[in-house]
Design goal:
7-stranded antiparallel β-sheet, 21 strands, about 750 residues, globular, 9-stranded mixed β-sheet, alpha/beta, 23 helices
Length: about 750
């Protein structure tokens, strides 16, 4: 990563180049178009969060870490590029306006108040002219301000500054802070796994290629080549490709591809459908707007990996910055970057969906079969050979307190001790769709995957003799050296599996009018607590970022025996960027001290089965309102977590609330402090709330008035248009959704097979 001559930005790892069998990691700069005034304020803010500090210490690494400021590391320019080009938040204009105002004395006075005034000439100051002490006080005041807009601004710049600073890498793929915070960067075992994969079964060139680039490579079709080359690759894969007919297609595409079914999205929903249809003899094209990264294409670097494998580069948030939203955007979708948890649909949820919502499918033999099939396909098991630090802390704390704790089933082997799975699986032993259903499709010879191709519109026309319409395919766009180009896929069945954030905007752009599209969004809000362990309670050197990410879980406040509308307690994966962006900031000194404790700080979170709802208005505009009951459930979860951390041996514990304080476990009234900290409000933009599960925005039902799709997964409005992702969930699930998504997609695939069979007979 390096800045260009115009001080531009940063890391995005590359596009599939002209060789479709090789994915070269390239650096792509985001041009920083912030004005000089905006950059003046942004630089001052960054250096307030992370100022240069002088300390006395015999360790030169520690001294250099405290001396390092955000601007010395180039963070403001990198952040300026993200704000200019990468972020699509609906209130980005407000952030830029605030930065500009802070560069003027009158704007600084309006925003910062009397803190911007001094008794000496010139009396009024811009933000960058204030002392570090004054700037830190202003930032702290913003975090707790009466005005939501200032709390929103604080949350935004705090998250972005710290995330970029601790995850950015130089041309050597290194970060200046990592040694000081006891972090190795990529998994130290990564190169060894690469060597093993290269050497195994490498006598045949084709097998060696698959070991290096993943088993899907022979059916990955790169569109970023001359049209005749792309057309040739598709024809060699058995697909009919033709030039457009201007009288028939209004979008004037460069190519028309014909198939039996087009699947938009390659994650846990789309991957399952693609594999089943292709194995049944149908020609399938999978569109994926993300890139393909397999094994040796991975960097396992937090910043670059989030930029290239997460929706909006991991920078998506609700319109009020209340929740940060993480979702996969790569071949394999969320199954490529998730944390391996593979829990079946809870019985209370099946009962609710089948009885309260009238969806008999969920209590059917087919759905039970689907759960068995998808779990077997992913190799789901519950054994653990060695537990990572966070999970060992959770388990020990629960056992000490007598709380229930259980093993989490995972789609990875018992010895899968890898804390870097959110950045991709280094050896393919985590069985996401790239290693299962998409592999079935590739092996069948009936399917292809087109990465870096974004669906623009589902095509449909009037069905004769009815007031319904029928799907005829999809138009999509991709970028080449010639610029943006478009193609059309003509298909008998169209399956949308873009996730709960991506599917609603595509349906709306395609002309569907169902008022439920985008509504009833559930996010499984998550809030965390931390515990600092100067010494391991297990007598070893395990680090917070190592080991299986999710192996232990407590349902102490989950209410599984009732409605399930409570909260499960689990552990997260936090590498330095995410850790720093979530942990509370009090001052530059306090933040650097906390980051030095990074590898010895355990995190545990509470995840609510939410009754609160939101709406997807566009891919970058998501609203959400947490219900009071959800807040109460999370607060109960935090109370238990703080006690769990203390019982496991933490010296100090705390939450992510901006007003929160660290609680020294063996001093003062610990119980009283826990009660005070856990009761702090969570709905006022004064703590960090995250979501890794989005669902319900195109829900399934028995009536067009209340839902978007029927039990078959087919939209009420357009025949032959199916949805197969978490957007069809009738309510929030309450546990990690991968198995449920795949099970529903399995059932939907059976419906599509019946539909295609009927089409063939016509």
């Amino acid at each position: 990563m390096k800045e260009n001559s115009s001080s531009t930005l940063i890391f995005e790892f590359g596009d599939i180049n002209d060789n479709p069998h090789h994915h070269v990691v390239e650096t792509k700069n985001y041009h920083n178009s912030l004005s000089a005034r905006e950059m003046e304020s942004l630089t001052a803010i960054c250096d307030t969060f992370l100022p240069p500090l002088s300390i006395s210490d015999d360790n030169s690494t520690t001294v250099n870490f405290f001396r390092l400021s955000a601007s010395m590391a180039g963070t403001p320019h990198r952040l300026g590029g993200l704000i200019s080009r990468r972020m699509k938040h609906p209130k980005i204009w407000l952030m830029r306006l605030t930065l500009w105002l802070l560069s003027t004395w009158i704007g600084c006075f309006i925003i910062c108040g009397f803190a911007s005034i001094s008794p000496n000439f010139p009396y009024f100051h811009t933000f960058s002219q204030l002392s570090l002490h004054q700037r830190q006080k202003v930032l702290h005041d913003w975090s707790l301000s009466f005005f939501p807009i200032l709390r929103m601004f604080f949350k935004s710049v705090k998250l972005l500054t710290l995330l970029v600073f601790f995850s950015q890498v130089d041309e050597k793929n290194e970060n200046q802070t990592w040694k000081a915070i006891d972090y190795p960067g990529p998994d130290p075992q990564f190169n060894k796994h690469h060597l093993n994969f290269t050497n195994e079964n490498s006598s045949k060139p084709e097998e060696q290629e698959q070991n290096l680039f993943g088993p899907l490579i022979k059916r990955i079709i790169n569109m970023n080549v001359p049209r005749n080359v792309a057309a040739k690759s598709l024809r060699e894969a058995g697909f009919s490709v033709s030039a457009p007919s201007k009288t028939k297609i209004s979008t004037n595409p460069s190519l028309i591809i014909q198939c039996d079914a087009v699947v938009i999205g390659s994650g846990s929903g789309g991957g399952v459908v693609a594999g089943i249809l292709a194995n049944s003899g149908y020609k399938v094209v999978v569109l994926e707007k993300g890139s393909y990264f397999a094994r040796n294409n991975l960097s396992l670097l937090e910043g670059p990996s989030m930029d290239q494998m997460y929706l909006s580069g991991g920078l998506l948030a609700t319109d009020d910055m209340g929740l940060v939203i993480l979702a996969g955007s790569t071949v394999g979708g969320g199954s490529t970057i998730n944390w391996s948890a593979s829990l079946r649909t809870p019985k209370h949820v099946i009962k609710e969906w089948s009885e309260n919502y009238g969806l008999e499918m969920f209590d059917s033999k087919l759905y039970n079969e689907a759960l068995d099939v998808v779990c077997e396909k992913m190799g789901v098991q519950s054994d653990i050979h060695e537990e990572g630090f966070n999970n060992a802390v959770l388990r020990k704390g629960c056992e000490e307190l007598g709380y229930p704790v259980s093993n989490i089933p995972r789609n990875s082997p018992a010895d899968h001790y890898c804390g870097w799975c959110p950045l991709g699986c280094k050896d393919g032993t985590k069985k996401g769709t790239c290693e299962t259903w998409l592999l079935d499709m590739v092996d069948s010879g009936n399917g292809v995957i087109l990465p870096e191709c974004e669906a623009v519109k589902v095509l449909h026309d009037a069905k004769k003799g009815t007031n319904r319409r029928r799907a005829t395919g999809v138009s999509f766009e991709y970028y080449t050296k010639r610029g943006k180009e478009s193609c059309v896929i003509e298909a008998k069945a169209t399956i949308v599996a873009c996730g709960a954030i991506g599917s609603p905007p595509l349906l709306k752009k395609s002309g569907l009018k169902n008022p439920n599209i985008g509504k009833h969004l559930h996010l499984h809000p998550v809030t965390m607590a931390w515990g600092y362990f100067p010494e391991s309670p297990f007598g070893d050197s395990r680090k917070s970022y190592e080991g299986g990410i999710m192996t232990a879980m407590s349902d102490i406040v989950a209410k599984f025996n009732e409605s399930g509308y409570g909260a499960v307690i689990q552990t997260p994966s936090l590498h330095p960027g995410m850790f720093s962006s979530l942990i509370p900031w009090k001052s530059g000194m306090d933040m650097k001290v906390k980051m030095q404790r990074f590898s010895r700080t355990a995190h545990i979170f509470a995840l609510a089965r939410d009754k609160g709802e939101g709406e997807v208005k566009s891919p970058s505009n998501v609203s959400y309102k947490m219900a009071a009951e959800d807040e109460e459930n999370l607060q109960q979860g935090l109370e238990k977590i703080l006690k769990i951390l203390a019982a496991a041996g933490a010296e100090e514990v705390g939450t992510h609330h901006f007003e929160g304080r660290g609680i020294e476990v063996k001093k003062g009234d610990f119980e009283g402090a826990v009660g005070e900290e856990s009761r702090r409000g969570l709905r006022g933009l004064n703590t960090e709330i995250c979501s890794a599960h989005q669902m319900g925005s195109c829900r399934m039902g028995v009536s067009e008035k209340e839902s978007v799709v029927n039990e078959m997964g087919e939209t009420w409005e357009v025949e032959g248009l199916f949805l197969a992702d978490s957007s069809v969930f009738p309510t929030a699930l309450g546990v990690n959704p991968m198995v449920t998504v795949q099970a529903i997609a399995y059932c939907t695939a059976q419906s599509i097979l019946g539909f295609l069979s009927r089409k063939k007979k016509c």
